[in-house]
Amino acid sequence: MNKKLNYFSTVKFLSKYILAYKKNYIMFAIGWLFDILLSIFTPIMFAVMIDEIVYYQNVPVFLKISIALVIMILFACIVHFFTQQQYAYLQIMYAFEIKNDLFNAVQYAKAEALTDMQAGDALNTIQSHAFECMVFVIRNIIHTLNNFFALILYIIYIFVIGWQFGLLMLVGIPLSVYATVKFGKVTRKCNDEYNAVYGKYSGWLMEGLSALQDIRLLNAQEVTEKKFIGFQKNLFHRENQNSVIKLSSQNVVQTINFLVQMSVYALCAYYACRGEMTIGVLTIILNFFTNIKGKVIFFSNCFIEAQMRISRIQRVYDLFHLPSEKDWKGKDRLDITDGKIEFHKITFGYKDTQDLFQEFSINIEGGQKVALVGKSGSGKTTLAYMLAGFYKPREGSIAIDGRDISDCSLKSLRQNVGIVQQDVLIFDGTIRSNLLLGKKDASEQEIMEAYERAGLGEFIRSLDDGIDTVIGTKGVGLSGGQKQRIAIARIYLKNPQIIVFDEATSALDNETEALIHDSWKNALVGRTAIVISHRLSSVMMCERTAVIEDGVLLEYGSTKEMLENSNALKTLFAIS
Length: 576
Ligand SMILES: Nc1ncnc2c1ncn2[C@@H]1O[C@H](COP(=O)(O)OP(=O)(O)OP(=O)(O)O)[C@@H](O)[C@H]1O
Ligand SMILES: [Mg+2]
Hints:
Layout: H1 7-20, H2 22-56, H3 59-107, H4 111-116, H5 119-161, H6 163-210, H7 212-217, H8 221-273, H9 279-320, E1 341-348, E2 357-364, E3 369-373, H10 380-387, E4 395-400, E5 403-404, H11 410-416, E6 417-420, E7 429-430, H12 431-436, H13 444-453, H14 457-462, E8 470-471, H15 480-494, E9 498-502, H16 510-523, E10 528-532, H17 536-540, E11 544-549, E12 552-558, H18 559-565, H19 567-572
Parallel strand pairs: 3-10, 3-11, 6-9, 9-10
Antiparallel strand pairs: 1-2, 1-4, 4-5, 7-8, 11-12
Helix pairs in contact: 1-5, 2-3, 2-5, 2-9, 3-5, 5-6, 5-9, 6-8, 6-9, 8-9, 13-15
Bound molecules: adenosine-5'-triphosphate (ATP) and magnesium ion.
């Protein structure tokens, strides 16, 4: 469980983005400081002009100040333009950096963290919650700091004019702050609840949209519609609650400000009646008071909004702090000579579940093809994932050519271990771009060899655009078998020394499977292959077979002999 963010820890968490663009921030801050000084000097100069004309009819001084004001305001326009330019740039860059970091955090998250994460929720966090971080940096850090500085200057000046007015401010401001903080706490709670529901909703919606076909097949439209309406009502109710709290808070703060304003007017009236206040000074006080009121309302709104934002930023923070593969300790390069694999007394269980393997061992000689069979759920895929470094055994070790894989870098490990998975992921794009994921600089010849070997040649030649045909959601749909063959061609291009075929031919017809088995014979020479399969034809391709059950290596030996003598294998494949 990550720590719960509050205002200050959020500032600390996000301030690194301000530091990353220090130069632009300093330029923006200087421009802004100029704006503040202008907002202080302009009313003072106006006041002097009024007093000089009303009380002394001093036209030359009036004119001089007017000209100075015009020059100042023209200069301010130019400064303002550059300040706004920096501001727009900072906004874009903060959002860019935050999204980049988030995407990286998800991209490198450990496998166990990914299984807990709903893709819809992560998408929402990267797209909209990252924006909230940027707004927080701009409004709740930069503007708040700047406005705070401005507020102090105004108050000091008001004290210089008259301590009575300064005291009034010092009574009014804490009252507003108190009301704001009180409302802020309620807001945060409501928003945490809203965001939790929203996260669940977006995860659910994304899953639902990607499974529309299954929903229809199950005739489950009414159930999903009810759930959708349920989510909407829940979210609407919470949104309503949030806006009521925000409005109440604004009203209370405005009422307090109004009362302080009336007191200031009364005090001004009192001094004016006694002839102790000129019209000029009166305008300065009223002007500064309006400014101070604006700043207090800004702080109040900002604080309430911050509470809403922090509960979204919390999700960004949690994503940032997912356990990462970058913490993998191994740094050495794994260079394979034989491709010998040893699982030595490994103990492993998924989070919150019983151990799947206890002191499990198996040795696979380099260059061998080994079939790994066992009932569904017996842990075959898990073994492949551990070999690729997705999960680490709690005890024991996995070695390739005598090197413990935890001492090797994940990059070199995955260069040498390729897995063709049960569920093949095809990216939107051409067949070529999908194949090039295996080797980004593959030559035309290499690509052709790979797809021919994977049994895709005939299919590709039947397409008008051949290898440049667009596939995926925006292009030609592919059958399960075609997807698997693309994954197999991809692995051929990647050319790892160790290949795991995890049910890689389960979606293929017998003819294509035979074709692929044929191509394995050449492609796998000198490589170690683990073939995980529920099909006897795939098992028969391999020299050796390992049967696992309940995390135990039940039998392991030559496939030929086991097909004759092994009861475990015969039972599994219902061979009499
Ligand atoms: N991410 C996960 N979190 C928790 N438990 C998991 C996870 N992945 C798999 N399991 C559990 O671990 C066990 C082994 O799963 P695994 O996918 O390795 O089985 P398998 O032998 O490959 O099965 P199949 O033949 O159906 O593909 C199963 O009981 C499964 O429910
Ligand atoms: Mg499996």
